[in-house]
Design brief:
With 251 residues, the chain is an all-alpha fold. 76% of the residues lie in helices and 0% in strands. It folds into 2 domains: 128 residues, no CATH class; 105 residues, no CATH class. It binds zinc ion (2 copies). The site of one zinc ion has 7 residues, from helix 4 and helix 7.
């Protein structure tokens, strides 16, 4: 798969610094999607059709709810609910129909009815799980994050200035390290993949070691004998470590 490159936001994210440039990008992207879904996007027919079909995951529903545009969110939620209900009723009616077949007298129809019911119930369960997790914001963010990860690899490969910025960065969080490894595997020839891994892995290991030291310093500060020792950058090492492990900012 070939992605479009998008260098300006990637450079901005590296200038911003921190534990992971892709977290910086994702954070900014998420805010702009939440704003757009409560603004102009509410009225765009294509987006409405997609929202009606997909809805939002629990995390993004909460962000949209907290953004305080209750009318915009109520309109989208109402049409999505109606579309969901229609599909839900169709599937449930099919399950109910086969469960009724079980009460028929003939043994063969009981056995057949039981098998159909179990299969349809399993399908209903699977479908409900998908409904619960699918999200138009997650889908759009995922496409853009793939493009940003690809841009990082492209700049690392072609731009000496960027390579320097990359080498003095702290690598990535685990979530985005996984993403860059995946995009590298999908888009780079084997010898470049190997070069990429040879660059990124030592950077990650160094970054984990530094964080571990800072977190240890932070823990020791709770000992009254160390109360007067300056903490410096270790002061916010706990939220930075959690971000490194999860890809989630704590503030
Ligand atoms: Zn990240
Ligand atoms: Zn989502």
């Amino acid at each position: 798969m070939k992605y479009h490159i998008d260098t300006i936001p990637v450079w901005d994210a590296y200038h911003q610094g921190g534990e992971c440039p892709l977290c910086n990008l994702e954070n900014r992207l998420e805010k702009s999607y939440v704003d757009s879904f409560l603004g102009a996007s509410v009225m765009e027919p294509d987006t409405r059709i997609e929202v009606n079909k997909t809805g939002f995951c629990p995390h993004h529903f909460k962000l949209l709810y907290d953004a305080q545009n209750r009318l915009g969110l109520a309109l989208m939620t109402h049409t999505h609910l109606k579309e969901f209900m229609e599909k839900f009723e169709q599937r449930c009616n099919a399950v109910l129909k086969t469960s009724k077949a079980r009460s028929a007298f003939a043994l063969s129809s009981i056995i057949r009815g039981k098998k159909d019911m179990q299969q349809l119930t399993a399908e209903l369960e699977e479908w409900l799980t998908v409904q619960h997790h699918q999200c138009i914001i997650c889908n759009r963010m995922s496409n853009t994050m793939n493009r940003y990860a690809y841009t990082i690899l492209y700049l690392w490969d072609t731009d000496k200035e960027f390579k320097k910025a990359f080498e003095s960065s702290k690598g990535f969080c685990l979530k985005h390290l996984t993403l860059t490894i995946k995009i590298a595997r999908e888009t780079l020839p084997a010898h470049k993949q190997a070069l990429w891994l040879a660059d990124v892995i030592p950077l990650q290991i160094k970054s984990f070691h530094n964080l571990e030291q800072e977190l240890y310093q932070f823990i020791n500060k709770f000992d009254y004998r160390n109360q007067n020792k300056p903490l410096g950058s270790a002061k916010n090492s706990l939220p930075r470590t959690i971000q490194k492990l999860t890809g989630k900012f704590m503030d």
